[in-house]
Amino acid sequence: MSKWLIISIIWGFGGSLSLGNRTNFSEKLKSFTSDIEFPNDPNFQMIDYYVNMGENKWNPWKAKVPNTDIDSKKVSDADVVIPTVDTVRHQEILCSWISEHRPFILCGPPGSGKTMTLMATLKILTDFEMVFINFSSSTTPDLILKTFDHYCEYVKSSNGTILRPKQNNKYLVVFCDEINLPEIDKYSTQVVITFLREITEQNGFWRPIDKTWIKLDRIQFVGACNPPTDVGRHPLNNRFLRHCPLLYVDFPGKDSLRQIYGTFNRAILRKTGSALNNQSESLTEAMVEFYTQCQTHYTPDIQPHYIYSPRELTRWKHAINESIDNISDVDGLVRLWAHEALRLFQDRLVLDEEKVWCDKLVDTVASQCFPSISPAALERPILFTNLLTNTYISCGKDELIKKIDSRLKVFYEEELNVPLVIFDSVLEHILRIDRVLKQPIGHLLLVGQSGVGKTTLSRFVAWMNDLTVFQIKAGRNYGVADFDADLRGVMKRAGCKGEKICFIFDESNVLGPAFLERMNALLASGEVPGLFEGDEYISLLNSAREHLLRDVKGLDTEEEIYKAFIKGVQRNLHVVFTMNPLSPDFSNRAASSPALYNRCVIDWFGDWSREGLFQVAKKLTENCQCRKENFKKKDMSQEEMNALIVDSITSYHIVIKELNDKLSKNAKKFNYITPRDFLDFIKHFANLQTEKSDELNEQQQHINKGLQKIIQTEKTVNELKQSLAVKGVELNKKQEETKKKI
Predict the structure, then answer these.
(1) How far apart are the C-alpha atoms of 425 and 436, rounded to whole Å?
(2) Can you spell out the DSSP letters for 610-653?
(3) Which residue of 203, 398, 565, 724 could cross-link 544, Cys pair, CB 3.0 to 4.6 Å?
(4) Which residue, among 393, 273, 281, 271, has the nearest Cα to 331 in the 3D structure?
(5) CA pair distance 236, 190, nearest whole angstrom
(6) Alpha carbon of 383 to those of 94, 266, 337, 339, 423: distances in Å?
(7) pTM for this one?
């Protein structure tokens, strides 16, 4: 019992510590227990051992970790969990807490595996069903009550009204993610946390509608959160925390990451036959090393969206798994690895020097882990797509531009007549958007100044992929009820009818915190609590039953039909957020709505480069006719004159932008110059040039007509003179004849 007491103290008092501090705590505790026998191992650490009560022996947690090998077809399954030392010991702790029906909280950085650990634990305990609620800064108790209405039933008994799960003989575990996000009110309390505390202490609550006391049966709460030191988080009340043991789930160490993704990579490369089977270890090392260095180098202190977690590694292995069938050699594998690394880690970077550092890191890690590759494997640009063929392969830039230009002409005719200029960065953004929209549960966060083409490019790529574009029409009287109705409609189309939809949601559509809270929940779990209630819920089930039973068999209960509907929404609905980094709310959104950054692939459009500005101006002014007399240099061709005009337009824009940047830093005067202003500048220039040319042409035509009239008159006068001369001769002749007769 002494050994078991020591282990209980480590996890009871040290469970809330990070892995490093927990290890130090266990070693300090070990120094106080000289009368307890420990294994004769110089590297012995109590944190790595558990006590076998039957044998009264120390056994390593590592011995409980099974050697896992998964089927290649299951690599993309979201519920596949690779056991590690961390997950095994965490599951052991959580099993004991859940079995006692105690509320508890999992704390840790985003992407550390809190949700995955809990789901893996509940798989072991079959008597529990989990419901997911995603909290945001504006969450109220109403969200929990709506969840109760959906998954539970109110039963009147002799002891009062009881709330219990609809499924008999099962406990409902309400998993409250981001539990420390709700704002603190003027009374220094979080209302929803106070409500949870009431439920925990009294095992019930007063129903707001009729002031009836509701007693809970077979319902327990579990929370998850980031550390309270993170931006936008609030420390939970100690009166609530006293009821909830806390376990800190840290990021997996390098060894755990190698074990997890090494298992996945072996299964992925097994599909290629013997050609790449021996590269799984090198591929895993390259992924883990690149991820670790990026996570250390880029932190949220630099930019709020620099959040790198093992989710990036999971997206990485998904992308490689989808494309590995077209890879036959090591060079192709490394090129695919590098492409996905740049998409996941470089696309969100803001500064050019940061992107250069990331580019160099790709080359360094690739040469370390794959020393035999040729220089062509990492030749830039690295562009992978299936727009040219039906297979996801590396393609050349020129042929891609030709293909996209041909599709653009059809797009102009069928959808949107907005001029798009395909220069290098626009081509890359098109491929990035296309890559994500083809992925299951693929959501995008496009960040860039107004006018860079976020919405237009999204519509174009959605059109190429046969996705229906949906945008809300927010007018003066548009409110939360209208937004809920739009959400119900688009979710029914995606979840029931299987329609593939691209939902483009601009930050200007966020007319209140409720809008963002609903989108946050939709991204996190594929559903919005309380969106379908009463008649709406019955209508949804009828519609889902009608459409889903054609394709999915065995949907007998309402619960199964609703779950199939949610899976359909996650599979068919792609959300594209468009945001402006100059907006003051941009940095706050990372704190108030973390799902925007955790669940979305971020593509930083930023601003256009000088080369991009030049190419746009050249395309949009190609019909402008320049006059030689307006230039100092003589004998210039039309191309040379146009190039000078384009260079001048580009230089004006850049100089004014730099001047405004200086004013914002020195004089605190903020005048934002964006690509939209640049496009307006070109539009006004082209219109003015056309207007003045038309005026000159009209004046020229007027002068030409006058000259033609003068020439015609002169000709007529000459003809009359000639005729007069002839008539004069005849007159003289007649006069002579007359004189003779007289």
Answers:
(1) 17
(2) HHHHHHHHHHHTTTPPP-GGGSSSSS--HHHHHHHHHHHHHHHH
(3) 565
(4) 393
(5) 8
(6) 45, 25, 12, 7, 14
(7) 0.82
